[in-house]
Structures are given as C-alpha cells and as structure tokens.
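Box S2. Input/output pair 1.
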Amino acid sequence: MSHHLARLEAETGTKLIQRAGRGIRLTDAGRLLAERAAEVIGRLDAAENELAAYTGLRAGRLRLAAFPSALGTIVPAAAAMLRGHQESVDLRLTEAEPPEALRMLRAGYVDVALVFRYSADPPGTGEQSDEDGIDVSEGLREQLLLEEPVHLVTSAHDPEQAPADLAAYARCRWIAGCDRCRAHLLKQCALAGFTPKIAFTTDDYVAVQALVAADLGVSTLPALCLRAARHPGVRTVPLPGAHRYVFAVRYGDPPDPPAVKLLMDVLRAVVVPPQRLGAHGSEDAAPAEAARVDVAGPAG
C-alpha cells in the first residue's frame, strides 16, 4: 500500500498522506483525490450497470434516492405498482435530502433521485437560483412530478380557525425545518412583513407536528408531510401562493435503460389522477400540468 501511495505522490507531485502518531492520515489533497476516486468508481459502476441492463444481465436492478416525505407517500405506491408490472425488478431505496441525492446520482450510486425545491424554475434561473445549489445543467435531466401546497400548521387547541395569513402569527414562536424549508419560511415571512422568531429546528415532520400540538410554536409543512403522517392535535390551512415542487431526476443522456424508464412511468402514474394519464406527451417531455396534491380531510 505504501508503495502505491508513494507512486501516486510522485505522479501527482503532491503530498497525499502525513504521519499522525503511529499511523497516517490523508492530507487535504489526499482527501480530494479519494473523493474523486470514489466518484469515478461510482460512475464506472453505473456504466457497468447500464450496459448490463441493455444486455439483459441485470435489467431488474433499480436504485432510487428520495427525501423522507416522498418515501412515506409516493415511493411505496410506486414500488407496489412496479412490482405489479414486473416482479423481477429489484428496487433498492435510499433516504436522502435533495443535495445528497443528486450527489449520489452524479456518482452513479442511484439511478433516479426524487428531489424537491420551492420553485418550478430550474436552478440558475429566476429569483431562487441559489436555493439548493442544485445544478441541472451538468447532465441532469429532471421531470416535474407534482406541485403541492405548503400549509400553515397551528395547534388544534387554538379557539379559532387558523387564518391563511402568516402575519397573524408574527409574534408567535416558529418551528423551522431543513435548510431549504427554513429558507422558504424566512422568505414567506419576509413577504408578510416580519422575521420569524425560530425557537426549534428539526427536519422531522412528525416532530414538527408534535411540537405544534404541544403549543410550543407554529410552522409550515408541505402537503406530502401531512399525508405521510398527520397529528390529531394540529390544524392546517394552505398558504396562498406557497408551493413545493417534486422532481424525478436522472443523469446522463437519453435513452434510459428499460428498468429506469419503467420506474419513471410508475412514478408519474402514482401522482397523476388516472383520467389524466397520457396527457403529458413523451417520457422526457415536461408535463402539461404538474399533478397537484393536498391533504385529505378537513383543514382543521
């Protein structure tokens, strides 16, 4: 091993390791090289899997990364439909927030990534170009699956129905979510004319609802979070003009391997009402109208 590292250092002209006590550790240059090596290996693995799929060797293996509320709603329905269409498909699931899911996609560790953002426009355009650091210009192909409302979440102990007005809660304590959700909350509150007093931060939508139900603050949550798990002690009302957009993303040029195409088909099918299936044109075309979802039951 030391011989190979010495040869790498000679070839790169950079010190890659340094002694630390009785052992060794990577230098910053060494860590950078290790990260790139992992990415290269991942892409080679992805290339091997794609070739194997086309030759029929591993056509049933699929890897999907998705954020938690999608794993609790969209993904199980899609997995069940996928198994109904093709029992031989081996679907592997990984929970990952959008930035990590896209890194895994680029590195070849997953075939499809489900991600979200609070703008329908691709990153790099419009006002929210830097929202996630998600760049769809470097070989990524995204398909808008659905548009969902963002809800104001308040305690069911409140004597009155929650108004769909953030400004009415300017003096309340707030519960914020992940970095992207927190940024969206701050933007919406700024538009309402105030800066929220954030008392708690958690990306667990079950915990958010429990904190709200305990009268510890108010929050906002997208519809999928409320569909995945709904606390009986909260009230919700959709906020006018506030939406979250869910995309299925692939990496590389079309056409997709047959198994990936099938996965895309079932993902679209589970978020689009049956009577609207087929209205979106070809597989890679942007849908004429994104599916809209809301939480079932009364708002209170």
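Box S3. Input/output pair 2.
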Amino acid sequence: MRTPLSTHLHPTEVYPPKFKEPAHKDGTTPLHPGWLPVLARVPLFASLSKRHLRHVADLAELKRYKHGAQIVRAGAQGNAFFVILDGSAEVITPAGHRHTLKAGDYFGELALLDGAPRAATVEASSSLATAKISRTAFQRLLKEEPAIGVGLAQGLVAIIRDLQEE
C-alpha cells in the first residue's frame, strides 16, 4: 500500500453528505469540485497539468459501500482506481496481512494502466464513500489526450525512485 495522502480537506468538503447533485445519465453521481486537490496528491497524477488533472477528475464517480461490502477481490481483474472520501476499509492480502485505509487513502492506481489481477481484497470496514475511476474511461481519455501519458510516466518514475530509497 502507498503512503496515505496528507489530505487537508475534510471528507465533507470533498463530498458533503447532504450535498446532492443530479445523477449522470448512466446513473452515477458526479463528485463535488473539492475532489480535484485530493486527486492531485496521488503520486501517479502529481506531475499532470491542472487541465489534464481536471480531465482525469471528471472521470470519477461517487461510489458508496455498506459496512462489510467487498470493493475488490484479490486475483480479480483490476478495472478501477479508488480514493476513500469518507469511512474506512480493510486491505487483506492472500497471506492474511491486514492494513486499514481511511479518508484520503487510495488503491488500484496501477489498474488504470495495466488491468493486472488485484494483489489484495479490500472490504468496507464502515460505511464507505469512494471516488472511483474506471480503467475503461481512463484508457479512453489517454487515447483522446496522449500528453497525459507523459505526466503519468513522470509520476511512475517518482514512485519507483521512492521505492528504491526504501
């Protein structure tokens, strides 16, 4: 798991619980504009321009889960990236290791790029609100805006350098 984001936004600033925006035609709920600074702190996206970051943020949908719900399963195809906006989740590896995620934490960012099988199961350990970006929508955006790929490469290099220093 990546280092948690040091978020300065309270989850209610990202998506106030009583704040209702009309649903998209496909039934998904758009996110509050406060979501953009949270996304900007994800290392993979840190090198993107503000314009490109807005394009990525526009792909996100609000996804809520009940306590105990399985968000992703180890071994399943990685088809989305998630940022926890409110609540908490438990990461469970196939070896049985556990790690708690809270508001501002994220998982599945590499699934946007390769769709490889999930390395762990993630379950909601409370009522949970997430921002979800699907791999399909993200791949479509990369085809429309190939310059985003350059920013992602820079973000990946920064992640690799951080891992090498550990």
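Caption for Box S3: Residues 1-22 have pLDDT under 50 and may be disordered. The helical segments are 11-14, 35-40, 50-57, 111-114, 135-144, 147-165.
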